Amino acid sequence: MRVSVLWTVIPLAACSSGIQGVWMIEVPMAAEDECADSIDHNFNGATAVEDDGSIPGGLQIDETSEASPSLIVVAIEQLSGTNATLLVGNNIYPGTKTDTGWSFSWEQVGESSRDESVANYSYSLQSTASSLTTWTVSAEGDLLSADVEAESSQERAWSEADMWNEEAQGFVSSSQIPSAAFLTVEREGNTLPATNSVDREECDSTCELTVTTTCSGATELTGTRTGYEIEDMGDKAINAGQAGGVI
After folding, report:
1. pLDDT in tens, 113-129
2. 132: closest CA among 221, 39, 217?
């Protein structure tokens, strides 16, 4: 699961004193988030698939791209005490003052579950996910700098009966656990995807597979004060922006 900041521009407002203001931000070409998978399982003799990005057949492809930065408009409104709000496109972030500037962040979390059972067959999928976006902002005069960090995590945990009888097979004819996408086994000299068959023992009673994916990315931004104020809400200039380079 990847996370990203949407750079869509909407009408914004702020007052031009200190951190407060409507700012024009230069956004460099986005880099790929760094992601990693952690795999736990109880399949007998199985090994987690190593995704090294190689292409079967010896063909190797290297791609690079560059593009000029884009421009967006954001607004920071300082509230009472050490509180403030940051508006970026369709997103609003609450923030507080720090020793070196301001920190704005928002975390999203969610979970879901699915359970199935019939006769001696059982299946479940438990999913949890979270994403955290943090803007660390400082301003000096009409210049602004910001470090934007995005982190996300998703855990998917499957469990399924190792074998099930003919009554259950009338409802569930094949395995639902996606072990073949993440695990391999050695069988008769061949490396094969690990699967959970209805009539062969691959696990101890119940097959279990948990895949955790974590991603992170960071971007350094710079900006200048535009001079627009709260009364400029709705002015065409507040909606202004520039797309990055075309590849």
Report:
1. 999 999 999 999 999 99
2. 217
Q: Region of 167 please: left (phi>0), alpha (psi -120 to 50) or beta.
A: alpha
Q: Whole-angstrom Cα distance, residue 84 to residue 77?
A: 6
For residues 162 and 42, give the distance between their C-alpha atoms in angstroms, rounded to a whole number.
Answer: 11
Q: Can you tell me the distance from the alpha carbon of 210 to that of 155, in angstroms, rounded to the nearest whole number?
A: 7
Token pair 């006769």 is found at 119
Cα 180–Cα 186–Cα 187 angle in degrees, nearest 5 = 100
- Alpha-carbon gap, residue 29 to 67, rounded angstroms: 6
What is the Cβ-side half-sphere exposure of residue 16, based on CA atoms within 13 angstroms?
Answer: 14
192 neighbors 175 (Cβ within 8 angstroms)? no
**Are the C-beta atoms of residues 123 and 196 closer than 8 Å to each other?**
no
How high is the pLDDT of residue 3?
43
Q: Are 137 and 144 in contact (CB under 8 A)?
A: yes
